[in-house]
Amino acid sequence: MKSFSQNSENGKKVFIQTYGCQMNEYDTDKMFEVLRHENYFHTDSHEDADLIILNTCSIREKAEHKVYSELGRLRDLKTANPELKIGIGGCVAQQEGEAILRRDSNVDFVFGTDNLFELPRMLRKIYKGEKISNIQRYDRKRVRNFIPEYTFQKIQHSRIRSHLTITKGCNNYCSFCIVPNTRGLEVSREPDQIIAEAERLVSTGTREICLLGQNVNSYIANGVDFVELLHLLDKLEGLQRLRFTSPHPKDFNEKLADAIVSLPTLCEHLHLPLQSGSDRILRRMRRWYTMETYFQKISMLRERIPEFSLSTDIIVGFPGETDEEFEMTIEGIRKIRFDLIYSFKYSPRPGTKAADYPGHLSESVKSERLKILLETQEKIVSERFQALVGTEQEVLIEGTHHRKKNTVTGRTRGNHPVSIKNSTKKAGDLMIVLITKANKNSLEGVPSSVIQSLGTKSLA
Ligand code: SAH
Ligand code: SF4
Ligand code: F3S
């Protein structure tokens, strides 16, 4: 949204701090679009801003604490500039509502995850001196197109890789998770709107789209299901790559595996959150799959695309998790060999089922288990990365290296970050790269002499 800083003399300046997941990043972009229409311009500095918004996350206690400590820091800015307006949006705002206004008198307005498009109305009120808490939910029966069209008709410059929300909310109520409370029940956007937004992104420079949803593969609207939507998007002229996050293992089926294998734009990478390797814990998490069914599902892909890349989320120290059950998670990740794991210590969330379960574990047990998990995974990642040395990979270039000269950076279809020396390619170009070195979390390579082809589907 850099275009945003032009002509800023006549407007107000807004700074938005984003916490949490990709959906919050997407929402932040939408807030910028909405505010641009109100003559607000983007600034990168707190000090410069007339309006500061924190787009918050409450997935774990730590994330929530970050917001309150940031508010503490903003206090001085407000004292120095009493005209400064401060707004809190996102998942903590949805959860806490008015309590935030009571807790901190510097906050001018609080708005929920369904209310970001009402920012103009809220701002008019706060400039009249009102304090606002607006966490009203959409009426699900009426709202399918919860993203107003004008926010994607006007996109000026988009990114090489862009997010696109297709569903929001979640009906699963996993026992540890606060998201159904903060994002509400699941709603899928109409396919026409999604296609229109995707077309707009591609026409303004996007080459890779990542579809977003809390349970993205349960998408269904106007009789179009997730796989059918993927087929529609795959046909988009100019779109090189398609990804999605997060799919739920219980809704991952053969039809989706077939689409991944056959659709040229769909990348050979999946982020499929496992959470635990113990069936008893998975049941208590209300995940509705077992370690065996999870393994069968990923085997459907690996049998057909051997170098398929897989990432996941794991929670350690869930209430009642025994040493043996934790060991099952370790065995599970040794068996599956993920390319990347996002691992978390269980954090009790207010209003969730698991918060009331017996058998909460101490911080030291959780930390010890996290350490073992990270050590196990580090070894596997290093072997997985090393196995790519000597292979040729298609890389989508995203820009130049921030330190190294004549070096560009991008990602493989398997989502591995790569830096490439001696390349004059530009952001948005595709190139075939010979991988020459594996670092801890990234790869290095050189331009390959191979004529460009699309991904491992055609390289194999
Ligand atoms: N919709 C996704 C998850 C979104 S939240 C899915 O169903 O997989 C991202 C990750 O945060 C989760 O996969 C989980 O691993 C982690 N997480 C969620 N709630 C948590 C909690 N209370 N404590 C620790 N980790 C949590
Ligand atoms: Fe949370 Fe479970 Fe929904 Fe994912 S599927 S957002 S973990 S309730
Ligand atoms: Fe956090 Fe809300 Fe996303 S709780 S992870 S910002 S859906």
General description of the model:
The protein is built from 15 helices and 21 strands. The chain is α/β, with parallel strands linked by helices and 460 residues long. It is globular. The site of S-adenosyl-L-homocysteine has 16 residues, from strand 15.
Primary descriptors:
alpha/beta; Rossmann fold; pyruvate-formate lyase- activating enzyme; OB fold (Dihydrolipoamide Acetyltransferase, E2P); 3 domains; six-stranded parallel beta sheet; five-stranded mixed barrel; globular; disordered N terminus; binds S-adenosyl-L-homocysteine; binds iron/sulfur cluster; binds FE3-S4 cluster
How is this structure best summarized?
It is built from 15 helices and 21 strands. With 460 residues, the chain is an alpha/beta fold.
- Please indicate the count of domains: 3
Bound molecules: S-adenosyl-L-homocysteine, iron/sulfur cluster, FE3-S4 cluster
Q: Any idea what the CATH superfamily of the largest domain is called?
A: tm_1862 like domain
C-alpha Rg (nearest Å): 23 Å
Form type: globular
For the biggest β-sheet, the strand order reads 2-1-3-4-5-6
Low-confidence stretches: 1-6
Beta-strand residue percentage = 15-25%
Number of strands: 21
Distance between the termini: 38 Å
At the fold tier of CATH, the topology name of the largest domain is: pyruvate-formate lyase- activating enzyme
Total number of helices = 15
CATH architecture of the largest domain: Alpha-Beta Horseshoe
Largest sheet: 6 strands, parallel
Helix percent reads: 25-40%
Class computed from helices, strands and strand pairing: alpha/beta
Mean pLDDT: 92
CATH class of the largest domain: Alpha Beta
